[in-house]
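Example with several molecule types.
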Amino acid sequence: MTKTVTDVICPFCGTLCDDLEVVVSDDGKKLLEVYNACVIGTEKFLHSQSADRVTRPRMHQEDGSWKEVSYDEAVEYTAQMLAKAKKPLMYGWSSTNCEAQSVGNEIAEISRACCDNTAAVCHGTTLIAVQDIGLPTCTLGEVKNRADRVIFWGCNPAHAHPRHMSRYSIFPRGFFTGKGQMSRKLIVVDPRTTDTAKMADVHLQVEQGRDYELLDALRVALKGEWLPDEVAGIPAEKIREAADVLKSGRFGIIFFGMGVTQSISKNHNIDAAIALTKDLNEYTKYSIMPMRGHYNVTGSGEVFAWQFGFPYAVDLSRGFARYNPGDTSSIDLLTRGEIDAMFTIGSDPGAHFPISAVKPIANVPSVCIDPHLTPTSGVSKLHVPVAFNGVECGGNCYRMDNVPIDCRKVVEPPEGMLTDEQFLIKVRDRLKQLKGAA
Amino acid sequence: MTKNITINLISGRTIQQGVAIEGGKEKANYRTAAGIIELDPTDLKRLGVWKNTNVRVTSPYGNVIVKAIETTQGPHPGVAFIPMGPWANSIVDPNTYSTGMPTFKGTPVTLEVTPNEPIMLGIQLVQKQCGVKSE
Amino acid sequence: MSEYLIKNGHVFDPVQGIKGDKKDIAIKDGKIVDKVGSGAKVIDASGKTVMAGAVEIHAHIAGPKVNLGRIYRPEDKLFSCTPTHGMERMGGGASIPTTFKTGYEYAKMGYTTAMEAAMPPLFARHVHEEIRDTPIIDEGAFPVFGNNWFVLEYLKNQEVENTAAYIAWMLRVTKGYAVKVVNPGGTEAWAWGLNCLSVNDPVPYFDITPAEIVKGLIEANEYLGLPHSMHIHPNNLGNPGCYETTLDTLKLAEGYKAKNTFGREQVMHLTHSQFHSYKGTNWGDFESGAKEITDYVNKNKNITIDTGNVTLDETTTMTADGPFEHHLTGLNHLKWANCDVELETAAGVVPYIYSPNISVCAIQWAIGLEIPLMMKDPMRCYITTDHPNAGPFTRYPRVIKWLMSKKARDTQVNAFKHKDKVLSQTSIGELDREISLYELAQMTRAGPAKSLGLTAICGGLKPGMDADVAVYNFNPDKPVANPDDIETAFSRCAAVFKSGVQVVSNGEIVGTGNKRTLWVNVKVNDNPQVMRDINEKFVKYYSMTQNNYEALGHHFVPNPFALEVDATQA
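Resulting structure tokens for the full complex:
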């Protein structure tokens, strides 16, 4: 016989679907099937119990092999590393829960670390823009119930947030959007004809890296002013048509992603997109929302902000919180050689940082806390596997629209395996002893 | 006839890459999903290469061997796409220009046909570049 | 637990009618007691003022819009960071302090209980996480109801009992404390970019007026007999001439009597009344409506108010009055953040600089002081800054100085660039009243506690009440040499006790205690209709499942304190 756990939250992306159903064996130990998740979420759940999983911490040896150590030894190495370092970096946090993030913050404060999350390579530039110009936004249910104009700018939800369109943005029949997809016009802006663009009513195939100009041109078009014949590869009439589509809606939403946060104008792109949203509010109602990548990067930003005052790139090395992206941000700290110890959790900088920022990690004492084998664990001195948050332990997470949802525990972790929070508590307590603050 | 061409490289998510990372980055599936470069048919022709051939991608910041495949999300002539991951990150522009964010999208790169060069597995690729011995 | 004896202080306790007598206050096992043994630790309060811990009835200190303010204003931390030291975690933020700093700063000023003024129910988990991370002070949070789809539909059909059942459900699943109403109807209209600026403007689609919403929620609140009354931020906030909308709103309370077992006597609490007391037709002829508002409230005893004092600082405005914030950014062109919340509410955030050189700001400052000076019953008028909207809560000592010293007010008036306009458009120049320490205790302790239905627990020093005690370095027997001494004395307590644990000594944190989250648990008769309506809206319209909405595990509210209400006989 089997049991079905309902209302399960998927711990992959910022869509944070909370309608999954997971079928487990009667004794609650084996995960058998997953319903309602996209293919990525399904893989996460089903793969979590694979036979080749690493279940104990291990130290990297000179010859490339790994030697298993106990959790206590792993705690000792980690605490010693943080206690001795002058400027450790505690990076990641995006694939774990807020309770663990909070303990991590205590550790960072005691060890005077720099702490940062995956916004560093994702929506960090969005945060900079928001700090310059603000953010008119809404929750995803408002999109579901009201939106008749949906723009995907520089993002590809068909691949990166697979159930976003069916749960929130295109297909749902909401309170004021009873015709579902037919209630909405979809505009996609992308240099490629992505699978998302293929569904659009209008695809603006912008020249890669020239989104800033196109955003600006749309603002001009809204005001009915002069435009050159072509901007960023888009003919002026197409721009004016798009502006009319935007203006004629009664509730619009701009979703945006890496196409604008990571291309050359970075935070200025987002600033322009938010400015466009503000302008649209002079005619009708518009909101804008970043498509957050990891399922709890938003949570990490929230916890950093209410405890330290800043959402990422936080430098505690002087005993109080400082923030200056470009200076206190992870890639810059690493490439300038300022970090003398690396603590990675809930993320994979080894795979997702440019290689020049990964090389410094290999040269310093380092710990990687991750249930998986990753490029980060591959270059770290200590690899500590932990329970999968959202599968083997619960904990609060924040969706891309900042809505908090408490993840559920579906099955037990492997025998003797700790959760992030449990490991971090041990590290914190040992660190307090070492620093004489117990 | 093979020649080098230059092209504009971007990087990002694909659903196959997402499945592969949850299945384990040490596995071959990760290389299949992310050790690739998606090219528009006109650029495959410009390079003079059959699809599914290995190519070397070189930028001012490094070089990497990946498999050139025909794009499924085109047309996008002049734009090449390597899914996010260590292959892309061997060559993307790491400069943040004081924003904290590397330039993952918009790195000019050179492509050269290298049909016999092997594509490394993900973890080994990073270890090798960092001077760390693989298992 | 420990025993303490706070000896020989000048005690001001409106609950027992003590007006400065020298008395000893005895603490044992977390409560005020009649006496303690000889082993008790003695705190010498000779020459000092002793009051119950203060009660903050309305501040924005925990939740999504507060944190949005922190995230989007890194500059708020520029000169206000405090390092880790002693028992204190590091902190930062002048107008929006981080949660640790919030707890420490309130405690150091002698505050022991605070109410988060507006909780969007969908975000309850976030509010509670921040409350949990705010040390020392007990807190509660008010879920917002005035733009909630269930409430709009039920009250359109005049279904008060169903509204009451929904409120009871909501308070339970969000661990909320009271019925908060912000810009009734107008914030739902704002989801379409519109607003309701009078009590008779119908809400788009839902076709109900703010007046109907307010009256319906008063009736539902009294049907249930909740500890606090309906707590309202009326329509048309901040616009010249808005005092008329405020009077229209206040009049909706006529004829209603408070029904509850908690000692509450009001049916409506008007919050940050300063922002709602404006006469004139534009910013040029802008003048004070404080007299009209206080005349009405003085006569109508089933209403309580709090002030919303402007402190003349750079601060951050944040409110569930979304359309107001959009309007404000149109005035000052500072960065604007907004979030519309499905089925429930919205929030807006805009920085604001209350410059003493701007006549409007100076008049606002004056109105904020006129109101408490013209209110006859200090038990019905409480000091707030609507933190951080009119100013940071850390300015309470300055507000107290202005209220207790005409000289201090005159000094400020004389420093205004447009002094003449302040004097002509308000009556601040003619008001001589200086509030006494006893009145201060009424306005910051006994009064708000009573309004909140917490009279049995806090706000006073009667044996049996929680041992929340504040000792100030202020000697009532000595004449005040310099009004700034008042501000200094009320900024940093000599000692503060929270639930019988000493948390402050000589202005420093010496303990963090075991703060509680106050909430209201209402028992109602089963209401299958409402449960079905809730279920249906989750399936069709919410973006979260009902089970996940209702999940508020122990890790969010580690130390809950429920006020129990039995509304089954209503």
